[in-house]
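OP here, attaching both records as promised.
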Amino acid sequence: MSAAEVSAQRTNRKLAWKLVLVSVFFAGFGFAMVPLYDVICRITGINGRTNTAPAVLNASTQIDRTRWVTVEFLSHTMPGVGLEFAPEQFSMRVHPGEIVHTTYTVKNWTSEAFVGQAVPSVTPAVAASYLEKIECFCFNQQTFQAGESRTMPVVFVVNPDLGRDLGTLTLSYTFFEAPKAPV
């Protein structure tokens, strides 16, 4: 084998090792992205995440009757889950600080029980921390028997500290099937 061939083999081996290292790095980085993204979202408040436990109302909160905020409601289910999921109303005008009651309805069209979790989000994302849920079906997993229909409450308040430039918030829920427990 000539010196040029040996040099080419050495160069190819180095390149192969570099490609393996880059592949391993990015595979690890891909697995680390989910927890990193979650931490960044919690710190910065982006991604429209709302409270995951009942909010405690401050007894001294005053209703701001000088302005209105429109709250829009959306609902989604993952394809193939067999649920019909919809808000009672698609929007309402509320005063910041006012306790608001609304409901969502769910119908399980399948012949099997469905166990799922509703995941809320608020847009614009900067408003997520100002929409405080007091009672919500999203706090716990829900079980729907075959053919069952249910009306589920959501009680919330728009914090009066919400900036005056935000006149519309959208509260959206997506129903996911809960992971099945190992048998």
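Record two, same layout:
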Amino acid sequence: MAQKDIGNKRPLHTLENSEEVRDFYDDWSLDNQYNIDMFDWNYTGPKESVDSLKRFAPDRNMLIFDAGCGSGLVGAELTAAGYRNLHGADLSTKLLERVPAGLYQQLQQLDLNRPLGIANRTYDALMCVGTFTYGHVAAHALDEFVRITKPAGLICFTINEGIYESHGFDAKIRQLEECGAWQKEAFFKSEYLASKEVNAWLGLYRVIDHPRSLD
């Protein structure tokens, strides 16, 4: 997002490390401002992502990890779609405090740029919506996402179109395809945050196997 999108807050692309990102969102969560802004800006990323997942994931009892869950916007869409077993993690503890009670069965504070400390092949599906953007989570996190997802499991994510090539997401996605880690089920341009002229690529990939380097 550009400076105009978040008033007098620091532009996202100038954030330099996880601590700055955490502080940025901790501040944005005050007085519920983050949720208010997402509603006012008609943020469609969560619903579009869950709608995509539903096409390929009929089992509503599957265990889903919401990576970068924030205040629970994706979790709310998953719950509305009938999914019952949700785990979430986010860098900002203040946003995690905004998650409605009972939405997730497990919540934890995690830096997605680091090894996650989650066992291999834990989840049936993984959602990552809104974290692959300027100054946030790097493309190498996809390796960890593949590692913690079961074979035949699904990984659904959005990537801000402005960083798709410049930050190596196109290369990482291609590498995971070429090494047989996953295969594409869907990949398209999401409206995402059209009210702010912010678009994203939305990808849905099925894990095939775990290369030795990811085990």
